[in-house]
Design brief:
This protein has eight helices and four strands. By secondary structure, the protein is an alpha+beta fold. The protein folds into two domains: about 80 residues, no CATH class; about 90 residues, no CATH class. α1 packs across α2 and α4 crosses α6.
């Protein structure tokens, strides 16, 4: 199912994780009542006595849905998804002017290296790290992209300073 809005239901227990089902929400109004209804149906399907926690992203509609679930089942706690919350935090940090500038520069360096074969060869010869291209849906990938390259000896800098490689040295240095 590509490009369809899905509500994924997973069950996690001490014995492991299990994908329960995906609900195609296309054509539905994804308000708190709808999401809570889907969660409550899933809770009943699994067995309400077996559930102690529901985790969703931290969107307002999901917060309200979580509260509706808690009203229905007093022993079940709603919790926002930690990675989603951290991604939102990093997105806010990324809006700081100096951070946004670093992100733009890091993307330019990654793009340059990945689009030029000789630069790729130099980078791979000098670094044990992989270059990552950030995804559109998760801002944290911007920090993951350049995080390993911050501080210490970097493959990008060493590849750009290798003597005897015409043109590449000048082009890579123009980014710094």
């Amino acid at each position: 199912m590509r490009r369809r809005p899905l509500l994924n239901m997973l069950v996690i227990s001490p014995k492991g994780e299990m994908f329960l089902k995906a609900v195609d929400t296309g054509g539905e109004t994804k308000d708190a009542a709808y999401i809570a209804g889907q969660l409550i149906d899933c809770i009943r399907e699994v067995g309400a006595d077996s559930i102690i926690q529901v985790v969703t992203d931290s969107a307002t509609v999901c917060k309200v849905a979580g509260r509706l679930v808690e009203q229905e089942f007093s022993w079940i706690t709603w919790t926002p998804c930690t990675p989603h919350s951290l991604d939102l935090l990093l997105e806010d940090v990324g809006k700081l002017p100096w951070v946004a500038e670093v992100v733009v520069e890091a993307k330019a360096v990654v793009k340059f290296i990945t689009n030029h074969r000789q630069s790729q060869v130099l980078f791979r010869g000098k670094s044990t790290l992989d270059l990552l291209k950030p995804g559109d849906t998760c801002f944290a990938t911007n920090f993951i992209m350049f995080g390993p390259h911050a501080g210490g000896e970097r493959g990008v800098a060493r590849a750009g300073c290798r003597p005897g490689v015409e043109g590449v040295e000048r082009e890579v240095q123009s980014f710094g």
